[in-house]
Amino acid sequence: MSNDLVLENEILNLIKSAFNAEGNVIKSRRVEVFVKKDQVSSVLLFAKEQRGYIHLSHSTCIDWIEEGEFELIYSILSPKDKIMLYVKTRIDRDNPVMENLDGIWHQLNTYEREMREMYGIEFPGLIGDKEFCLEDWDEIPPMRRDFDTVEFARKTFYQRPGREDAKDVRKTLTEQSGEKIPDFATKYSRE
Amino acid sequence: MNIVKDKKSQHIVDYIKEFARKNSLFVMAYGTGCGAIEIPPTMTSRYDAERFGIRGAATPRQADVLLITGYLAVKTLKRVIRVYEQMQDPKYIIAFGSCTINGGMYFDSYNTINALDRYVPVDVYINGCMPRPEAVIEGFVALQEKIQRGDADNGKKYQENIDWYRENQMKVIKNWNMPDYNW
Ligand code: SF4
């Protein structure tokens, strides 16, 4: 395998110029592009139909609570070029609505239902039960970072005594190595 | 239950009864969590649990032991309770792995219960994350000893304290749409 990243740069530049998008080659066989919300479907279709990115590997969401945004990531793979392309987009956290794209890959339906349940993102026109993994859930969606799972577990489930001296693993490790924890991490720390 | 009047004969009857019970444990393996992966080696030729009279049962009504092999989501707990209530007396529960004891590494999860014995009575806990087949067999042997001693009567305890258990169960299971059994 050549390591001058020819194929990677080729697909990156194609998408950059066609969609006026940002992007990087992360490393060999990994390319990321940042596109606007309403361009996602055209980028995915372009990559799928024209460039052979026929395989949807994964799709997920990241909660950027400090910036008030959700980031949606679509990982698609080209079996021919053996390149994984990450198509990333940001949507507003207070009004999380994203286009329903399961017409492109029907598998996306599952991921979108999961994101709807775990992050509360709405996909208008999405077919499928409202409940995906949870049952009778009436709190805010549990994967959002402002949902305090420790507090929730403490008040909902009986806590058997004996865990009181449990430590925040991350804090212990950083103290040992003298590393500084970023501010946003301390804000949501367990202690 | 007294079958004969004479106390000494009753003792012999009990002994035989418990002996028969403890040597044919039909297991309903409720494979939740990661621990279910230790059941196949326990049952198959390497460890061969059947030499202790332990073997699988197809349905809850045919089973003596409910084996719960790990963390339980609230959604799964509902099914476990239903399975347990369908089982015929005498019935025993073996809980498997630290998740059933105090939540294990999922103690702060939004969706897994932490202490199983708040919801159903547990006879034997096997600790470990996850316990090896030797430990599982050890747990079964502990249960057999308990049966032979005659103090494994959690099925009755569950019926007597059903209010306490129901209260705990309903606290986590919001939509309670379960059948009532009269056992
Ligand atoms: S005790 Fe360990 S192995 Fe068992 S279910 Fe919990 S995490 Fe998994």
Could you name the key traits of this structure?
heterodimer, A: 191 residues, alpha+beta, Beta Polymerase, domain 2, 2 domains, five-stranded mixed sheet, 6 helices, 5 strands, 21% strand, B: 183 residues, alpha/beta, Rossmann fold, five-stranded parallel sheet, 40% helix
Describe this structure in words.
The complex is a heterodimer of chains A (about 190) and B (about 180). Chain A has about 190 residues and is of the alpha+beta class. Chain A contains 6 helices and 5 strands. Chain A has helices at about 5-20, 40-50, 110-120, 150-155, 170-175, 185, and strands spanning about 20-25, 30-35, 55-65, 70-80, 85-90. Chain A has a 5-stranded mixed sheet, covered by helices on one side. Chain A is globular, with a radius of gyration of 20 Å. The mean pLDDT of chain A is about 90. Chain B has about 180 residues and is α/β, with parallel strands linked by helices. Chain B has one domain (about 5-170): Rossmann fold. Helices cover about 40% and strands about 10% of the residues of chain B. In chain B, strand 3, helix 3 (about 75-85) and strand 4 form a beta-alpha-beta unit. In chain B, helix 1 (about 5-20) packs antiparallel against helix 5 (about 135-150). The interface of A and B includes residues 150, 152, 157 and 159 of A. Bound molecules: iron/sulfur cluster (SF4). Iron/sulfur cluster (SF4) binds next to helix 4 of chain B.
The helix content of chain A, as a percent range, equals 25-40%
Helix-strand category of chain B: alpha/beta
Side-by-side strand order of the widest sheet of chain A = 1-2-5-4-3
Calculate the mean pLDDT score of chain B and round it.
Answer: 88
- Total beta-strand segments of chain A: 5
